[in-house]
């Protein structure tokens, strides 16, 4: 018997940071949750869902996940883009959650069943100078992590994105007011990065998996120089060495280095990633289910990537809500070409709103046994944390020119 979508509600909540959450309720009382968080542009996705999708969804067959995906993607005429794809992802995740709950199975069972028991995850270490960074790495090692992303300050600069001083926690979005501005100087970074990462490698020994994110700040020549200077550090990956849309230019970087490359956290559809996959210009695809159209689209992209020996290395910062984190866990459990997942962790307030059954220990993420995606949202708690304007910072060159992300 068909199960019909009866209610569509959008929640915007800010337990330490903003999240956009979609609730779909069926006529027989099953509730599914989706994530539509787009860091710094949250209200645009909330409006897309509320003003343009909600009424079109009510009355549809909740079991027809693929048909609903096609209806929202092909039917709208306007395709792709982060706002559209995050909105479609939220609907998709909520419908997978509903199907799992209705059938009494975790979502990964619906995707063919697990091909592994747990996901290897990397987390973040950050410190302005080498002693602070090593301290941060040690704290993450004590928590059991076997893979760590190391970010550090640059002499001469006041701030560097993703880097804190004095052991403070890092959060991508600054809360209250407009975007902060930071000055960036690539030459100083290129001089400094090899020494710092070599010091980290020497400190941790050969086994720990070390990663580094260049946050799209380099041109291909600078990227090749950086990668070559890091060959001996044995990085697990070097991330976002050039702006993600400059795909053809990645060939030049690739030809110069054997350091594994990861790109794609800003991608929204297979069309953003096809050249990188088919020419195997990357080793890891960073797309997240919330920004890549949900489980339905991401599983096709990962199946396509499998043909080219490109692995999934999904984005998992604090701005990917526990609902998407869990959806990504279920998808990656059932995906052969999974490599590693980012797990930045959440402020304790996030746990007051999102009750997740996944567990992180020993550097691995494991699912719970609940049917569906295994995340429940406490709506009363969500209402206690209203939206706060928050943005990623904007970087400028020393002369004031806006710099690439
Ligand atoms: O919203 C964007 C941030 O989450 C992103 O900049 C963080 O680069 C990032 C990463 O790899 O987690
Ligand atoms: Mg990144």
Automatic annotation (TrEMBL):
Pfam families: MR_MLE_C, MR_MLE_N. Residues 130-260 form the Mandelate racemase/muconate lactonizing enzyme C-terminal domain. SMART domains: MR_MLE. NCBIfam families: ManoateDhtManD (NF043051), PRK15072.1 (NF011654). PANTHER family: D-GALACTONATE DEHYDRATASE-RELATED, STARVATION-SENSING PROTEIN RSPA. This is D-galactonate dehydratase family protein.
